[in-house]
Amino acid sequence: MNGLLSVYFKGCRSVEEFQCLNRIEEGTYGVVYRAKDKKTDEIVALKRLKMEKEKEGFPITSLREINTILKAQHPNIVTVREIVVGSNMDKIYIVMNYVEHDLKSLMETMKQPFLPVIVLPEINVWVGLRRDPVKLPPSSPVLRDRLEQLERQRERERKLREQQQKEQREQVERERRAEERRKEREARREVNE
């Protein structure tokens, strides 16, 4: 079955022309793998589109994502290189440039919030979108995913703040009670003397 679908999808290479190195992440629309192009030895990201529930052919969400990414030519957006196919219809992959870090993992590991003066390539998306926004329709899967990530980050930060405030209130209350007990002991000592 090597490359059987590539006969039907002329111009599409087979996914077997890539060596899967490891799984990176699973998102709303698919699973992303780090892979090596066997012809060029380049490291790429392979996104296998989720097709299990599709009975009517290619999912419209995947078509929208591919279309949006192809239209959004910008240095802060990962470039789609090609579409490759697997051994059957539920194995369609988007081949993209591989980026060592993603915004989500950077946000989770950063001890401090991003500052506009930081210009590391890994966070260029964050800084770049503030300085040179890409015009994407609100229905864009790229924008929607990014907004969902930011919303999840805000929710985590809100919960962390609430937890810290609760712990601070509890600490203040413990200290207040300890001070009251200390004063009571002192008062008893004074009475007993």
TrEMBL record:
Source organism per UniProt: Acipenser ruthenus (Sterlet sturgeon)
GO BP terms, alphabetized: regulation of mitotic cell cycle
Keyword Hydrolase listed: no
InterPro entries: CDK, Kinase-like_dom_sf, Prot_kinase_dom
Protein name: cyclin-dependent kinase
EC number of this enzyme: 2.7.11.22
Family: Belongs to the protein kinase superfamily. CMGC Ser/Thr protein kinase family. CDC2/CDKX subfamily.
MF (Gene Ontology): ATP binding; cyclin-dependent protein serine/threonine kinase activity
The keyword Calcium belongs to this UniProt entry's keyword annotation: no
